[in-house]
């Protein structure tokens, strides 16, 4: 098993994007990813802020 490469641990983060009139919040933690969509920016930002606090992060990334 010398050629086995362990999965890279991904740092937790919260991302917000608005690619085409719909807002998306992506939460990445423990090598899992969850994406939720919102019609209103204020709802997306509120959800993202709650996830940021829950995860103990310093910021939300806007992409």
Spatial extent as radius of gyration: 14 Å
Helix content: 10-25%
In DSSP terms (H or I, runs of 4 or more residues), the helix count works out at 1
Sketch the major β-sheet: 4 strands, mixed
Poorly predicted sequence stretches spanning 5 or more consecutive residues: none
Class by alpha and beta content: alpha+beta
The average pLDDT is 90
Number of strands: 4
Percent of residues in beta strands? 25-35%
Shape: globular
The string of secondary-structure elements, in order, is EEEHE
**First-to-last CA distance:** 39 Å
Strand arrangement in the largest pleated sheet: 3-2-1-4
Write a structural description.
- The protein is an alpha+beta fold and 63 residues long.
- Helices cover 24% and strands 33% of the residues.
- It contains one helix and four strands, in the order βββαβ.
- It has a four-stranded mixed beta sheet with strand order 3-2-1-4, covered by helices on one side.
- A hairpin with a 2-residue loop joins strand 2 and strand 3.
- The chain is globular.
- The mean pLDDT is 90.
Q: What's the short story on this structure?
A:
This protein is an alpha+beta fold and 63 residues long.
Secondary-structure blueprint:
Elements: E1 13-17, E2 23-29, E3 32-38, H1 41-55, E4 61-62
Parallel strand pairs: 1-4
Antiparallel strand pairs: 1-2, 2-3
Comma- or semicolon-separated keywords:
globular; 63 residues; alpha+beta
């Amino acid at each position: 098993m010398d050629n086995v490469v362990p999965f890279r641990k991904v740092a937790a983060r919260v991302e917000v994007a608005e690619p085409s009139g719909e807002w998306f919040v992506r939460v990445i933690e423990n090598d899992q990813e969850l994406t939720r969509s919102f019609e209103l920016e204020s709802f997306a930002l509120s959800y993202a802020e709650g996830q940021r606090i829950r995860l103990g992060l310093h910021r939300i990334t806007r992409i």
